[in-house]
Specification:
single chain; about 260 residues; alpha/beta; 7-stranded mixed sheet
């Protein structure tokens, strides 16, 4: 691994995304249930985006399984689910969760999204929610995801949107309030959003990147979510965020850029 990738792996190996929101005993049923309840209360848009039940008996790869919450939905929906993550912590979480419900993945393994351990044209669907923007080479991750997807297969990924309300909020806290107002959004997110090296993209950048690959985009939006509306802040701050969403656009100023693609046959 490069030094940056080692730092990213170390960060997420301390605590899988979402596990910080529970106080229950680790790996207990309450632990996993509270993680799941929190995730889908704060990010309900995952269900309409992933469309888990539409992939019954289909071969699915989730890139970056984290605490295993979405991965569990693929298995519940009857998919042949494969999952990879850079960290052992994620695999431990997911294996424990499946064991508690007597469910079994088709395959789980530690792997690098920049070098997926699968043959070309293998999966009916590849899904990744908020993961590949943490990898040092996000474009290489995209290439790998496209490579392992079957012709006419579906790719569903979420990456961060640089021109979003939440990104500007992070700039306000880590840039303006820290006496560095001239730092760019990219610099702030790279150095002060979750693991070091976090990236966020614009619509224009993503379209330019994907134009080079054999995919057809069917969805590209960034609808404002509870994260952009700062659900954990006081009501006046939330009202301000709501007005900003109305001004900048509800479907383009969100932190979560959702992309659905079909690989050309």
């Amino acid at each position: 691994m490069t030094q940056l990738k080692k730092e990213v792996a170390h960060y997420w190996n301390q605590e899988s995304c979402g596990t910080e929101h529970t106080q229950a005993e680790k790996f207990s049923l309450d632990y996993f249930k509270s993680i799941e309840e929190y995730r889908y209360t704060i990010e309900p848009e995952i269900f309409s985006f992933a469309q888990f039940t539409r992939f019954h008996k289909k071969k699915i790869l989730e890139v970056g399984i984290g605490a295993g919450t979405d991965f569990l939905q693929w298995i519940r929906a009857g998919s042949f689910a494969y999952g990879i993550d850079l960290t052992q912590e994620a695999l431990d979480n997911t294996k424990k969760r499946l064991a508690l419900e007597n469910l079994q993945a088709h395959e789980l393994q530690t792997a690098d999204a920049e070098n997926l351990p699968y043959q070309n044209n293998f999966f009916d669907c590849v899904y990744s929610w908020g993961v590949i923007h943490h990898s040092p080479d996000t474009v290489k991750c995209l290439e790998e995801i496209i490579r392992v997807t079957k012709p006419n297969g579906v790719i569903k990924i979420m990456i961060y949107n640089r021109y979003s309300l939440f990104a500007f909020y992070r700039w306000f806290l880590a840039g303006f309030c820290k006496g560095r107002p001239f730092k760019s959004l990219s610099w702030i997110l790279y150095n002060h959003q979750e693991s070091k090296g976090t990236k966020a993209y614009t619509f224009k950048e993503i379209k330019k990147i994907l134009k080079l690959y054999p995919v057809e985009i069917s969805q590209l939006d960034a609808t404002v979510t509870k994260h952009d509306l700062l659900y954990y802040k006081s009501k006046p701050i939330q009202w301000f965020a709501y007005l900003a969403a109305c001004l900048f656009g509800w479907h383009k100023a969100g932190w979560f850029m959702k992309i659905t693609m079909k690989k050309k046959g």
